[in-house]
User: What shape does this take?
Amino acid sequence: MVSKNIAPSGSVASKRYELLTLGDELLLGLTANGHLTFIGAQLGQRGVLLQRNVTLTDEADAIAEQFRESWARADVVITTGGLGPTCDDRTREAVAGVLGQTLVFEPEIAKGIEAFFSSRGRIMPENNLKQAYRFERGEVLANANGTAPGLWVEQDGKVLIMLPGPPNELQPMLTEQVVPRLAQRGLLLKREAYVQLRTAGIGESALEVKLQPVFNRYGEALSIAFCAHQGQVDLRLSSPSGALSFGQLDAIAAECVVLLGEDFMCYGGDSQAKVVGDLLRAQGCTLAVAETATGGLLSSEFTGVCGATKFFAGGCVCYSNESKMQLLDVPECILEQHGGVSAENAVAMAVGAAERLGADYALAITGFAGPCGGTNENPVGTMYLALHSPHGIWSKKLHYPGPRATVNRRAVTAALDWLRRELVRTQSGVTTGAQAGGQA
Amino acid sequence: MVSKNIAPSGSVASKRYELLTLGDELLLGLTANGHLTFIGAQLGQRGVLLQRNVTLTDEADAIAEQFRESWARADVVITTGGLGPTCDDRTREAVAGVLGQTLVFEPEIAKGIEAFFSSRGRIMPENNLKQAYRFERGEVLANANGTAPGLWVEQDGKVLIMLPGPPNELQPMLTEQVVPRLAQRGLLLKREAYVQLRTAGIGESALEVKLQPVFNRYGEALSIAFCAHQGQVDLRLSSPSGALSFGQLDAIAAECVVLLGEDFMCYGGDSQAKVVGDLLRAQGCTLAVAETATGGLLSSEFTGVCGATKFFAGGCVCYSNESKMQLLDVPECILEQHGGVSAENAVAMAVGAAERLGADYALAITGFAGPCGGTNENPVGTMYLALHSPHGIWSKKLHYPGPRATVNRRAVTAALDWLRRELVRTQSGVTTGAQAGGQA
Assistant: This one.
């Protein structure tokens, strides 16, 4: 459950937005409804809570009926999909009927579509001309990444926005053209409605307790929303009543950062790998990783970070004992005496990775993610982590309930958070060592 | 666009289902609407195309209004979420008002909730008793994984099903309790409506051409739907009119498999890694992988395969030249003469991985995934693959447009498909070598 007051802010909060997402592929579960996620988040950032999202089949009658209802209720209606060139895309016609408008052929759009095809060395099929129509009293939103332009209508004191279905066409059209236009007309905030802090390694309730002194000071004027996901909790500060200015929100956020200490990860929504990478680069250091059960998940966290070659030396995935010895020089006696799932092996893997790859830091994860494997001493869900740094080597044993994917994900999150805290301490000259740390 | 005729099958096709998903977190884009994807797919498999999904805020009035509409239109209404213990979960009351029913306290549910808490060593908070109410004329769906039971009502010749929001509670409740009950009442098919074949390395239109002789033979009686995703195309065969029996559909699928040859990957929806793993195990062989830009993505494909230790020897992620030499014995002269992004290096990485890890097969991927990097000869999007097998070593150069994540994903898909084809050929005694293959 999210706080009710996460989104609305000031006068735009009272605006009613509805989203119609069209396409059988959504209703058949073949494609996730990413449009809702993307558009909902964009509106939420600008102070509006989307009131309703309706997904329905591509039948003209159902579309017309639903659009009539939504148009009667809402200030802004956004539709996605149904603007394709095939004969079953009859969305434009259905909507035009409800608005009492006709569709007119727009030679400029046709030229744009032809140019799109010829830039790719292809000839425009005749049926694409269907996409060259706009509402007689409406505008066109240029589409740099596809053939169907977006459509914009202002009528009856309301706004209708029709967007093409492919995400790579819809998303830039929304952020670059639609959001600024809506903000201009006072239908969205001109900047983000909240300040977001990302924390890691601390639970939602502990976070609340820690920040209570700040929250108490501002009372009703300040609205706080928590959103927990995979070992991280995002904290959003806003002032729905407008009682606090954005400058004040920024100052309150800074107070929170001080109270949070190491639990603070970043402003906004950067990934753990990005934050860790920035810290490593700032210190001119490199990282190596070694994994068993997580099988490359830890390593692949860094593929999303551009320029990772600057700090990420590499990684090894070692399921078999042979591979641990061959790739990471893990001594055979350790594997014989303690087994592959042990603190001793985790440490040997981290040391081996750091030495083989010539890295300053190394993280190792080994464990039983399940559903197979596990012993009395180390049941399924047991994960050993090891951290090698220029200041020492540590290991810790963790246990996570849940299915394989969850266990692996949580171990990766815990490992990255451990390293992040160590890097933060090194940066600030604290030398308490890596033993302390956030919750597992 | 999906074929219209993918889902409906026989008399259940005319049944109208609507899904109401409740929760501000969906409308704010904080959580993807996975319920739509899951429930839509379950219904689609059993012959029903979900007619409409409405996501709305947790306001009792809006819920009542929307439920009234959906209940009037549909044969079956499913709701998700809004059954929590907090005071803002007023969904039950809103729905009861529309149905003209009252809610009654059910001591059996209360006992179950108490047992749930005590099995976890916790005491039940008082407000959880709110979850112990059911409709006076309705049933309860047991929840083994949480506190809120599901609710089932049959009234006015229609069915209402209310499911709890957490996916780990909702999903087993749907498949184990709801789907069988609906099938019993003739509201869903008793088995899957279609036979699914998964293909890899062949495009949708090429697939259609290849299978046209089969399709022509059955005409209107056979419905074919294609669903493309990341280098794979799923093909679903069904007979909406019921003109073909399930036995006939199975036989037609077998004909398609013969025509498809190597392009056929599996029946159903297994992953590439699973299929490759099964082939390796059947041949008693092992696999090692080596990666640069894909940074562990190839390796982590195997974490989803239980028992991967049986065939997956391990992998290396080598961004730096040093790591390629240290971990995989890539000769320095190759890196100096040809660079890290070259066929020569890909081959050396594959050979090194196979030798170091003592594996029969090895896959290597190196390239520029972008947005940084790239040269005139090897622009961003260039990926070199190498395959080492007991029968030889090959490399190929591919080029993919698009952002980093897409380039990486497509390279991983291509590498796994290449290996799969090689394993299929080995299995069937064909020794044409790995040079041939599907589209990049």
Summary: Chain A has 14 helices and 17 strands. The first strand of chain A starts at residue 17 and ends at 22.
